[in-house]
Write the structure tokens for this entry.
Amino acid sequence: MTTVSVFGGTGFLGRRVVQRLADEGTTVRVAVRYADRARTALRAAGLDQVTVFGADVRDRASVVAAIAGVDAVVDAVSAYVETGGLTFEAVHERGAETLAREAAAAGVARFVLVSGIGADPESASRYIRARGRGECAVQQEFPGATIVRPSAMFGPGDALFGTLAHLARLLPVLPLIGGGHSRLQPVYVENVAEAIARILADPATAGRTYEFAGPDVYTMRELVMIVLRIMGKQRLLVPVPFAVAEAQARLFELLPNPPLTTGQVDLLKADNVASGTLPGLRELNIQPTSVEEVLPTYLGRSQRESD
Ligand SMILES: NC(=O)c1ccc[n+]([C@@H]2O[C@H](COP(=O)([O-])OP(=O)(O)OC[C@H]3O[C@@H](n4cnc5c(N)ncnc54)[C@H](OP(=O)(O)O)[C@@H]3O)[C@@H](O)[C@H]2O)c1
């Protein structure tokens, strides 16, 4: 791939995809709503050569401009909270559909949609349903699209462990949503970024769906215990029913950076682990990195410094 447009290229995952592609010598475009913020971030990362397009997946004309002349498109756009006209359906379903349709019309060779484990077009959850319907729309508009479904991703700046650590610093008790029984298979964000770069480099991956998960399955309670151990803290763990967590998340969503969203609560209602029926990191010759290997390198450091 010589030129790739990464929609959501400033995000937690997207910026790592951009970094890898740029390191390989690929010409990269970042397409996001806030172009100035993106230019500043790219400059700070030493990626001045990356071009930035102000684009919103809900605006067809801006999408067309951002993909003109590229060989591949990566959709790593995310909306975790619905506000005003910004709905899960508008971003994850219609937005993905617009990107795929315009990419096909422009003769783009490859399309990668970042979705998530558990995506389900029939789900009762607005978030999970939009993810599932987005996958279907992309497959229809761009039949050779590759879909990648990560489990919860971890790495410096992640929402999962970052939020747990933040709460552990602030509160004497920690909530265990749904009793903390949900099972997750957290995957290292750098493994996912590398996987997307390999997918783009290998035409045989076109049309496939991948599930990206880490080497180990944990319950939410086990993950909370790992965070507390690394931080050297002891906290009372209090089970919180899903309905209560949902009501809290609705209130949190009124804040600019909610520590918990209704979409996250919905995801915890079912296990977020690889099905085992789809290819994953190993099929791309990537050895999954464990939580225990990486988490202490950023959680321990930042937390101890701020204690
Ligand atoms: N983080 C996880 O643990 C996790 C787990 C499984 C799946 N995923 C999936 O992975 C993908 C990336 O997630 P992430 O956590 O990296 O997201 P993120 O950090 O929230 O980044 C979102 C990116 O999308 C851009 N964006 C948002 N709305 C947009 C719009 N309407 N048009 C164009 N760009 C828009 C943002 O830039 P602007 O604000 O400047 O537009 C930003 O670059 C998402 O599909 C997410 O559902 C994430």
Confidence is low (pLDDT under 50) at residues 302-307. The longest strand covers residues 27-32. Residues 7-14, 32-34, 55-58, 76-79, 91, 95, 114, 116, 150, 152-153, 159 surround NAP (CB under 6 Å).
